[in-house]
Each structure stands twice: as C-alpha cells, then as structure tokens.
Amino acid sequence: MADTLEFNEIYQEVKGSMNDGRLRLSRQGVIFKNSKTGKVDNIQASELAEGVWRRVALGHGLKLLTKNGHVYKYDGFRESEFDKLSDFFKAHYCLELAEKDLCVKGWNWGTVRFGGQLLSFDIGEQPVFEIPLSNVSQCTTGKNEVTLEFHQNDDAEVSLMEVRFYVPPTQEDGVDPVEAFAQNVLSKADVIQATGDAICIFRELQCLTPRGRYDIRIYPTFLHLHGKTFDYKIPYTTVLRLFLLPHKDQRQMFFVISLDPPIKQGQTRYHFLILLFSKDEDISLTLNMNEEEVEKRFEGRLTKNMSGSLYEMVSRVMKALVNRKITVPGNFQGHSGAQCITCSYKASSGLLYPLERGFIYVHKPPVHIRFDEISFVNFARGTTTTRSFDFEIETKQGTQYTFSSIEREEYGKLFDFVNAKKLNIKNRGLKEGMKQSYDEYADSDEDQHDAYLERMKEEGKIREENANDSSDGSGEETDESFNPGEEDDDVAEEFDSNASASSSSGDGDSDRDDKKPAKKAKIVKDRKPRKKQPESKKGKDPNAPKRPMSAYMLWLNASREKIKSDHPGISITDLSKKAGELWKAMSKEKKEEWDRKAEDARRDYEKAMKEYSKADSHRGERAKKKKKKQEKQVKGKGDKKGATSKSSSSKSPAKGMSDSFKSKEFVSSDESSSAESKKEDSEDEGAASPAPSSEDSASGSD
Question: Model's pTM, two decimal places?
Fold first, then answer.
C-alpha cells in the first residue's frame, strides 16, 4: 500500500464556504492546502479521534474529529475512493472509517448534541444538520427559545444568518434548559467580548489601510483597533501572515497583517492591515501581566518590561500572540540598493517587494501573490515611455496583475530573481526580442547596440535638419522684422496688381526697389544648398560592400550567445568586459584562427570593392554624357529664346519711355482739378490708341 494519498480539487468547509484546495494523507497525518489563501491545515495522525464517510451535495465527504474537539470537513470525493481511504485509515491511523448518512425525513424536531466544536441536530441516530460553533457570532435567549446568529460569509452567494431553537421546559429543578443550551454554545462560539484589561496598548499608530490613526489594544484572543470614527475587532485566528518591510527611503517601516476573512466597513473589505512606522520612534512597553504569567504564556518570547523601536515592539508582540513567523524581504536588491521596486498598480504608485516565496505590493491596493499560485510572469514594453517596462503576473486562476512604470535599470535584477526562483517566464522563448523592446539602450547585444546607435545617428540628422529648417524660417522672419522701412514696399510688391506703378515712383525709388529683390534672391540662393546638405550626407549607396569585421568582432558575434547563456541577464557593458577578458585570456593558436577568418573577409571586401568601383565608374561616365547632352539641349533653346527677346525689346523701349513720360506728367500735374481732368482725358486717348503714340514718339526722336 502507498504511504501517501493525494487528492486534487477537494473542498474544505470553513464558516459556510467551500474552499478549493489539495488534500494529502500520509503516515504522519492529514495536510490540506487552501488554493486561495495558501493556508495549510496540518492534522497529526496521533490527534485523529474519528473518521466519518458520508454522502453530501458535492459527491461524498470526509469528516475528521480530533481529540481536542476540532472538526474538519472535506468534500468532493468519488464513491469509488471509499475503499482506498478506508484501507489507508486502518493501516496508518488505526481508525475505522465509519459510513453515516444524513437524515432526509424533513422533520423539524429532534435532539441536540454538543460534541467538541460542533452542534449536531439528530433524529434518532442520524444527523439532520451540523453547525460548527465557531461560525456563531451571537447567541441570545428568550422564554423557551435560543437564537443563534452567524458570521456573514462574503464568498457565498447566500448566507445563513440566523437559526432559532425551541427548547421545551423540563421538570428538573434548578436547571434551566435554555440557559444550559446557551452556555454550551457560547463556550465554543466565536463571540468577541472585550472583557478584562488589555495586555498592552499602542497609541496613535499611523494606519494606511484602513486609513487613519488608531489605538491598538492587544487582548489575549483578539486585536482591537480603536479610531475616531471606526472600531475593529480582529481575532488572531483570522491572521494569515505577518510582514515587516523596509521603505525605500530607509527611514520608515511597513508592518503588514494579512487577514482572512477580512475586516469590513460597509461594503469595503480590508484584507490587509498596514501600519507605517518611523525607524526613529522608540517606546518603553510594560505588559499588563505579572512575570510568571508572561513566562508561562509566552515562554520567553516576551518579557514584562521591554524597550526599543516602536515597529520592533509591535511586531514582536504580534508574533508572540498570533504565533506566526514574520516574513521579511529576502536577498533581492534593486538597482538603487533597496529591497523593493518602485512601480504603479491600478494608476497608484507603490512598492513591489520580491520575497522568498512570493511578491507583495504596498500599499494601495495591497496585493500578495505566492509563487505556487503563479502560472507565469511576463516582461513587457512600457505603454507610455520606452524608459520603463511592465511586469505582468498571471495566476493559475486566470487573474492578471500588471505592475507598470518600472525603471529599465531594474530589469536585470528582477529578471535574475525570477529566473533564480524558477518561475515560468511567458516570453522566455522571445527573450532576446523582449530585451530589445526595453533594454536595447543597456542590455542588448552588440549587433542590436550598433543598430541602436545607427538609429540614434539618423534621429540626430533629422533633428539637425529640423533645426536648420527652423533657423531658416526664423532667419526670414528676422530679416523682415529688422527692416520695418521696407515692410510697406514688400507689401506693395506682393499685393499691388499694377507692377509698373511701383516702379514709376522716381529714379531713386526704382533703384532702391531694384536692389531689394536682388538681395532677397541672394539669400534664397545661399539657403537652398544648406537644406540639401543633410540629403547629401544621407546619400549612401546601399549596394556598396560593407566593411569587414575585425578578428575580435567575428569571435564576439560567434560567442555572444554562449556568454549570455552562461551569465543570464548580463548587461551590455558587463558582456563587453567579460568578452574582453575571455579574448585576452585566449591562446595564440585560437586567435590566429580568427585572424585568418578576418583576413579572408578583408580579401573578399577588397575584391567586392574593385567590382563595385568599376560598375560605379561606368555609371558615372553614362551620367556625364547624359548631363552634357541635356546642357546642349538647354543651350539651344536659350539661343532661340534670346533671338526672340531681342526683337521684342526693340519695340518695348519706346513704349516704356512714353509710359514713363505720361506717368511723370500725371504725378506732377496737380495744379487744378481741370488740369487733372485734361490729363485723365489724354491718358484715355493714349490707352485707346497705343500704336499712333509710339509712332509719334519715334518721329519726335527722329
């Protein structure tokens, strides 16, 4: 027979809810691990008193009773597994696995039996239902009646809130059956009553979740948070874990208490209690117990009088009362030397602490993720900037957590940590591509690094070109703004439809106007080649042969993957240093092999360059011939155009002179309105018959 039995997808009934988990039976005892909380119930084989097999809603169930009265229920077994479990109990626990079926008659009267922490309502010898007394939150009595109220279960869609029992009167004198019933319930119920004095009180502690300042009163079985608005009573049985985490500034400490079930305020659930302490705060603490009681209860873990840092005193007292270990960060150290990573979760900035067995994020909202519930992690490029990356975690239940805005310098440390913990990395197969996405500036290999430099050079050229363009534009604006006297003339040239009117304002004005366009044309001619300069720099033939690599670079390209596999997560600078050390330590014979390869590559390059140069010279000759041919064609067209312009210019001076003569006459004749009207008539006549006026002017010159 096997020494162990394991069952997956087994459900444990705890306070009315069915918690999924794994059950393992061994010679030493029974172990159940909750998949949701990670909490482990360990029942020693020597503590088992009874085992019951019965049919329940989820198939078949196993009920275990211990000698100290605790009851454990596990459902989800198949009927065929009874024989295997029965034989295992007989062989290893020396117990008979009894079969008991629940009564389904539907009667509402019977007998109540109290066994350990269980209330059983029986009809005859068969139980109808059972109530774990730890689920009871309150018990009240009336005349012949007892009312039980239960803790609300957040995980269940429907919760049982109250049960009433009618207790008939008895003939026995001196014994009230109602009071006896209530006392049996209250002795085992989870009813929090602040009776007696607190062991110690911590006043005005800063609490981040729930937010505010609270007095913490430490009682033997529960913790009492007393604030200005709210009070919370937290039984120590609901505490899952304790964490003591140093803040990144090294001046403060977080003390985190994980709770299940959580404390409630309205519809808000607080699964974590987070206290913030300053390292400089000290306290002297005196327990409200005599030394013998302290020694007997805490066995040396606490003393009656203690002093030290406030956070140390709180964590020490909580550890002794809850009887759980305090989790602190492990060996992880970030880029800045801190044991945490600054990041954002759900648009709130906080700190992510890699622990020995999980991750915890504080503080809004707090998140604790155990390694055993992680399906895989993923390193992704940041959505807002390339200077950061995202760290994604997906659990086996399908829940995804994304911690964003992590500085790129933290990648190497975090990747090494995840790798050392043997977590499944989703994009491990695309590791190099992954590194390139957010580590190309620091943690990529040589080829990627060179590509990055080339891209940066191109971006620099583009920026330089944009700067030139902007300086050209600003230069033109400056020219215009520094010549306010010419502004009117420029506007006249641009918007006046009669070009001759602007040129007919006198000889001096026409000379000044003639100089202005020449000056502007000169500026444009100077600036055009400046804009084309970056284009000439970019004009590199992509077909040209690439320069050969040196012996060292050939060896590095061949050995890079091996170096990276031997040193996972190594940065580019460290990789270069390591490669240099390996090359320096290499024997002369091995170096000669790479020298020969480099020499072969150089010969191939020279040969390719010769062929490329010949082809390039042929292309250059063809381009020169084509250019000369185009120049001849342009020159021939220019000669024809010059001949036609000469013939037209022989007629145009006469007309220009007459026009200028009329224009001067028009400007100077302002003696009377009659003279103006005569001049307008003469202009109309001249405009109506331009040919005769030109002949007259020609005859006048003769």
Answer: 0.51
